[in-house]
Amino acid sequence: MNGILPVWKPPNCTSHDVVAKVRRLAKQVKVGHTGTLDPAAQGVLPLCLGRATRVVEYVQNLPKTYEGVLTLGIATDTQDQEGKVTRREPVRHVSKDKVIDVFRRFQGEIEQIPPMYSAVKVKGRRLYDWAREGKEIKRQARKVYIYRLELVHIRDGNFPQVKFVVQCSKGTYVRTLCVDVGRALGYPAHLSHLVRLKSGPYSREECVTLTQLEDTPVDLWPSRWLKPIDSGLVHFPAHTVPLEDRLAVVNGRPIPLPEGHYQPGTLLRVYTVSEFLALYKCDRTGKRARPVKVFAGNR
């Protein structure tokens, strides 16, 4: 099978567990996911199968949308509900207007310091390996982008729960965002619930569950849930070539472009009228494009 399979990852399993299960069910080695979800989280996890594994890098770079719950007044060592509580401070009162004001400050480009319990490598080791040894390692801040951060509602109490929706760039740690928002509100905080609603162009409504995959013959997967390879590249412009130029594209030859249509360096989805052929890149003149990855074969 060649295509993109949007899977709904259940809680309490890793993204790799989902990949391993689909590999076993499909009897197919070439399966890869497009962005790790923490074990406790659930949500949209697009998997690339077969030739579609060649577009993983482009799909995982797209924005993701999450629904989360931030619990104020309690900090944990992992910044989420899975960790050990390190601090408790009952919250006197936090108004809706105050939360909205702080949320506004975190929209746009921000800097985050990766949490100790993360897969980021420092000095040749994953940060979570250092953390499990009780060591705190200095980490460099990273720039990420928050496209939107919206308040859904606040559940009052000594430890208020703030439900929110965030759309963010690749590499954003939502649990770190919660900790930083809590700090701006004057309290410890952690992420207590997380659901990924959308990953790139793939939404919850398009997803298949692992149970559905187990209960469905593999030969029916393509017609029911498998998306075409180019569905993961829809953020790139489409360029159509005449049918007589198909062989040139399949063989990886440069193609001419209409002058002034595309900026140098632009990636293009190249098609005939009815077939996706390849991903090309405009050269520095913008008048020609050269192949990056070819997906169609000779007939």
Automatic annotation (TrEMBL):
Record InterPro entries: PsdUridine_synth_cat_dom_sf (IPR020103), PsdUridine_synth_N (IPR002501), tRNA_psdUridine_synth_TruB (IPR014780), TruB_C (IPR032819)
Active site: D38
GO biological process, one term: mRNA pseudouridine synthesis
Stored Pfam families: TruB_C_2, TruB_N
Database matches in CDD domains: PseudoU_synth_EcTruB (cd02573)
Keyword Chaperone tagged: no
Catalyzed reaction equations: uridine(55) in tRNA = pseudouridine(55) in tRNA
Keywords from the named record: Isomerase, tRNA processing
Enzyme class: isomerase
Domain tRNA pseudouridylate synthase B C-terminal: 175-232
Domain Pseudouridine synthase II N-terminal: 23-174
GO molecular function, one term: tRNA pseudouridine(55) synthase activity
EC number(s) on file: 5.4.99.25
Isomerase is among the record's keywords: yes
Similarity comment: family membership: Belongs to the pseudouridine synthase TruB family. Type 1 subfamily.
Function: Responsible for synthesis of pseudouridine from uracil-55 in the psi GC loop of transfer RNAs.
HAMAP family in UniProt: TruB_bact
This protein's name: tRNA pseudouridine synthase B
